[in-house]
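The authors assume throughout that readers already know how a fold can be written as discrete tokens. For illustration, here is how one protein appears when written out as sequence plus structure tokens:
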Amino acid sequence: MASNSKIQLSTAESFLCGGLAASIAVTVSNPAEVAKTRMQLQGELAKGGGQKVYKNALDVLAKTWRNEGIRGLQRGLGPAYIYQIFMNGSRLGFYEPFRRTLNRLIDKSPTDQLPLTSLAAGAVSGAVGASIGNPLFLIKARMQAYSPALPVGTQHHYKSSFHALSTIWKAEKFPGIIRGMDTAILRTAMGSSVQLPTYNWTKNQLVTNGLLPANSIWSYLASSSVSGICVCIMMQPADTTLTRMYNQPTTRLPNGRLVGTLYKNPIDCLWKTLKAEGVLGWYKGSTAHFLRIAPHTIITLTMNDIIQNLYKDLKSNRT
């Protein structure tokens, strides 16, 4: 019987394990994502923050539950599942192949955990996932922003994921489907550049210093917690920008092209937000973001390790 540590999963196997782990995580983290999205859109480009519909992340959750029930708290969950399979399947599935390849390119052992190649592999694998999953993230953000009771920001009412995609396609064709992709790549690359490197580094430190055993649930949880904090800090401004780029209203130019009425590009969004709302405008929804990213990262990375180990056990039992 082969040892678990010696069994290498293929890219496809890692992709599927990562996608399954992320789907489990998003079921738990989606209500916080709804709260984050609405907080980020509240008082958009308004001096002094504008009128506040929601006081904080917990207030969003409470009011959404009271006015919209579980359906409101889980808005956008359908596209979120598919997005997570593409996004985290890519991020977790392609990370190791990219990292090992980069190590070989600089004549280092594929097993070495090098900060530079780890960061690069995390960023590239994240960018790949963001590109593939962009249409789903777009409709997820718009669905989560929609509230029939306490609306903030531009409202897009879609009956389903298919209805959302067909509506966007009819109105804007391909440019509408890829709207915000540049921001999505930036956001995800920033988060992915630190997610797995900080997780692996923390886990390695805990194990090599004898603080926790390698396959302990506590080592998974501790490493995931550190990783979640790092991801949240790194990607918050880009995350706020992405939400606003996705959700902004559009207008049709004389040449027939639809463009956003508020922002030209991610840099324009960051600059206008800074001028109108100050630096804190970039960090709107950061509490909700942490409430989302912490359990999501912990569950995703912990479940990814557990699922991979279970799958390796199955493979080793067959050999």
